Amino acid sequence: MIKKAEIENYPEIQLVWESSVKATHHFLPEDYFQHIRSLFQTFLPAVDLYVDVDETGEITGFLGVADGKIEMLFLHPRKIGAGIGRSFTHFAIDQLQVTKVDVNEQNEKAVEFYQRMGFKVVKRNETDGLGKPFPILEMVLGADTNV
Q: Are strands 59-66 and 100-104 parallel, antiparallel or unpaired?
């Protein structure tokens, strides 16, 4: 069930993020992961934040959206492939009018996922949002061009 996140969800959201990144972002060195981890909770208030909660009340994933763009979509590793990412993306497109997402180029499964959801690469940036050498692909829903 997708619902609006509350501030008291932040610690559990961070745990989901940490386990998700460890499972999917093998290209990130530990020191960079720790740096992002130290900043993580400052990123959350900058987005409209939603969580998926299972029948036990556990947060299984979260979605952060700002200005028509998916800024964050992370799932607990044991829930990857269960349809939660697809549900979040449909929710973001249908309810929040999302048309854009940025993805780490080295996170090939995420790139493939967003392509299956109808997003196309329109630009490649050599660095991530913190200026580190982890290329970012800018993707737009239904775009005609591919970089």
A: unpaired
Outline where 1-147 has alpha helix (H).
10-24, 30-43, 84-96, 108-116
Question: Of 121, 118, 115, which Cα lies nearest the Cα of 138?
Answer: 121
Handedness of CA 73, 76, 81, 86 (dihedral sign): negative
Say what the alpha-carbon torsion angle 92, 98, 102, 104 is, to the nearest 10 degrees: 20
pTM above 0.90, yes or no: no
List the end-to-end C-alpha distance of the chain, in Å, as a whole number: 35
E-only strand ranges, 67-145: 69-75, 100-104, 119-125, 136-141
Structural domains in the chain? Answer: 2-141 (3.40.630.30)
Distance CA 23, CA 129 (A): 21
Encode pLDDT of 100-123 as tens digits.
999 989 888 899 999 999 999 999
Give the Cα-Cα-Cα angle 60, 95, 142 (nearest 5 degrees). 100
